[in-house]
């Protein structure tokens, strides 16, 4: 149970980070914190019995792959944005 | 186990993966034909699948012969068969359009074809999955390839829009995954059919939280008001065929999941949220229409119209006890999918011809591009809900369901939304009928593009005359 609660705490912190932080790199890190929180919930909740459950571990592996892919895509986009605008924050474009 | 190894269902999963990979290897010169032929085969598969489903042949497949609860189940019922048909048809026509739209040396074309294929395979997998975790994976496939498509052009605006979309979609899918994790913690399974009997009215509080998280996550991905902040930028700045794909199909995928969960395993818990969803839908109709009426850019206008039209889908949640409401929702998904694809595709032609993405720049378009403007008008008819279009049928069914269940407010909102849609559609048409400025030159546009737009828009109207099969199909397997 303590794993699950810790996971929820990480998720909430990560979520706040993704929403509030301005720097895009920090946003990505916050997203990864959020993801780790979920993985902790997945593994933690299933471990109430003494014998560990293999299914959520397989899910977490899949989830890590997805998170890596998303992070890579985000980093590539941020690099592109940096080369175009020289910034790694959203420029507030209220266009016209 | 004596299963047929190759069924239309498997074909729908594998074909797009194959052609997407080939498109990536062979480059933008040869990929259009691979994609178009792949999509032609897929369209046939989807019709065949829909035919079998409507005859009552059950369509299930256990991947690698590992059934639930350990393996991943694939299953198709009427609703998912209908979504598959819509996806293949819209994608097929957009592929034909894109072949002429992108010049071979266009930077966007290099990425467009492979990502298009992966997007379609993600969508098909999503409609076929019967496993909550597998659905998460397909959601991410759809989301990431959609973001790639938005960014394909490589402009500053597109990259910014893609990044905003990325963060919105990541929050959405993370919330969904946390919900799945909590459900797994409570019941020890993520298979939809196994969960169905387990979740009851007196489910623990944790399940309610899980359900709330999953639905909230999907709402962000569907861009329901007030979570629509990312949609206008993303759909408005991408290239026209990409906007069409995103508006017609991608947002529908996450809506389909809300609907699937609501009608399926989460029904006892999710019914607490029905009115909340309807109120948000109502907000979406008014806010989206208002922004569409004010928008200066043509594609922004159409994107905000998507926000408004998505509202109708959510408006029907309190009515879903009756089959009519589900038929109305499906009809609205088809009507909006076809009409909005037609509209974006037509907007792409107009932007190519006039060289600018503004409503004001449309003056004189009717004389030069009559077929495109006719397509725009037909799509407009569907969005406004005038007879005999599919939009009319959808709204008619929705009002019918609302009145028989005594919710006249919903009927009122549907009617008011139609009037607001008329305002923004006529903004486009009025401008197009104005006389062309004396020096205004329009670039020539291939005729094929115009006919693609026309086909999509005309289909959205004609479906209203011939919706019986679709309505029957949706009722199967519920």
Give an overview in words.
The complex is a heterodimer of chains A (96) and B (478). With 96 residues, chain A is an all-alpha fold. Helices cover 76% and strands 0% of the residues of chain A. Chain A has helices at residues 2-20, 24-45, 54-85. In chain A, helix 1 (2-20) packs antiparallel against helix 2. The longest helix of chain A has 32 residues, at 54-85. The radius of gyration of chain A is 17 Å and the shape is elongated. The model of chain A has no long low-confidence stretch (mean pLDDT 87). Chain B is mainly alpha-helical and 478 residues long. Helices cover 74% and strands 2% of the residues of chain B. Chain B has 20 helices and 2 strands. Chain B has helices spanning 8-26, 31-54, 78-101, 107-128, 132-151, 156-187, 192-198, 205-222, 231-237, 240-263, 267-270, 274-294, 298-315, 323-354, 365-368, 370-384, 390-404, 408-433, 447-462, 468-475, and strands at 59-62, 73-76. In chain B, strands 1-2 form a two-stranded antiparallel sheet. In chain B, helix 5 (132-151) packs antiparallel against helix 10 (240-263) and helix 10 (240-263) runs parallel beside helix 13 (298-315). The longest helix of chain B is centred in the middle third of the chain and has 32 residues, at 156-187. The radius of gyration of chain B is 21 Å and the shape is globular. The model of chain B has no long low-confidence stretch (mean pLDDT 89). At the A-B interface, helix 1, helix 2 and helix 3 of A face helix 5 and helix 6 of B.
């Amino acid at each position: 149970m303590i794993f699950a609660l810790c996971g929820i705490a990480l998720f909430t912190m990560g979520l706040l980070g993704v929403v509030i932080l301005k720097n895009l790199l920090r946003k990505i890190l916050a997203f990864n914190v959020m993801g780790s929180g979920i993985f902790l919930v997945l593994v933690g909740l299933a471990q109430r019995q003494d014998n560990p459950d293999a299914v959520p571990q397989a899910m977490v592996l899949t989830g890590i792959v997805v998170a890596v892919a998303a992070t890579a895509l985000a980093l590539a986009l941020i690099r592109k944005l940096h080369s175009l605008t020289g910034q790694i924050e959203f420029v507030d474009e209220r266009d016209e | 186990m004596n299963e047929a190894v190759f069924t239309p269902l498997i074909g729908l999963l594998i074909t797009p993966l194959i052609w997407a990979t080939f498109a990536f290897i062979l480059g933008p010169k040869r990929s259009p034909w691979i994609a178009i032929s792949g999509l032609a085969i897929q369209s046939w598969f989807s019709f065949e699948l829909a035919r079998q489903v409507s005859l009552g042949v059950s369509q299930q497949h256990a991947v690698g012969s590992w059934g639930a609860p350990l393996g991943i189940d694939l299953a198709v019922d009427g609703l998912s068969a209908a979504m598959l048909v819509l996806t293949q048809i819209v994608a097929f026509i957009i592929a034909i359009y894109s072949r002429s739209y992108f010049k071979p040396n266009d930077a966007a074309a290099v990425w467009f074809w492979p990502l298009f294929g992966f997007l379609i395979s993600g969508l098909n997998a999503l409609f076929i999955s019967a496993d909550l975790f597998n659905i998460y994976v397909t959601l991410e496939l759809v989301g990431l390839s959609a973001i790639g498509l938005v960014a394909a052009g490589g402009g500053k605006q597109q990259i910014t829009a893609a990044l905003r979309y990325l963060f919105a979609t990541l929050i959405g899918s993370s919330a969904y995954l946390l919900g799945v994790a909590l459900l797994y913690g409570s019941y020890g399974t993520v298979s939809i059919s196994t969960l169905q009997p387990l979740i009851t009215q007196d489910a623990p509080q944790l399940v309610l939280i899980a359900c709330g998280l999953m639905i909230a996550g999907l709402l962000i991905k569907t861009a329901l008001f007030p979570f629509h902040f990312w949609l206008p930028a993303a759909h408005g700045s991408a290239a026209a065929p990409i906007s069409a794909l995103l508006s017609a199909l991608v947002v529908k995928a996450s809506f389909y999941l809300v609907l699937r969960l609501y009608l399926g395993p989460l029904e006892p818990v999710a019914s607490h949220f029905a009115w909340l969803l309807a109120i948000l839908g109502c907000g979406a109709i008014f806010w989206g229409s208002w922004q569409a009426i004010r928008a200066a850019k043509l594609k922004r206008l159409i994107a905000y119209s998507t926000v408004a039209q998505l509202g109708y889908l959510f408006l029907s949640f309190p009515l879903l006890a009756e089959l009519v409401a589900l038929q109305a929702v499906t009809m609205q998904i088809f009507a909006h999918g076809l009409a909005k694809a037609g509209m974006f595709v037509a907007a792409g032609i107009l932007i190519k011809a006039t060289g600018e993405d503004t409503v004001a720049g449309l003056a004189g378009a009717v004389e030069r591009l009559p077929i495109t403007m006719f397509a725009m008008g037909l799509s407009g008819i569907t969005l406004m809900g005038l007879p005999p279009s599919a939009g009319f049928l959808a709204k008619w069914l929705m009002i019918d369901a609302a009145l028989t269940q005594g919710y006249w407010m919903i009927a009122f909102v549907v009617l008011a939304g139609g009037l607001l849609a008329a305002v923004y559609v006529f903004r486009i048409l009025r401008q197009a009928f104005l006389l062309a400025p004396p020096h205004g030159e329009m670039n020539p546009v291939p005729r094929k593009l115009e006919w693609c737009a026309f086909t999509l828009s005309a289909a959205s109207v004609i479906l209203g005359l011939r919706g019986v099969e679709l309505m029957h199909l949706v009722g199967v397997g519920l």
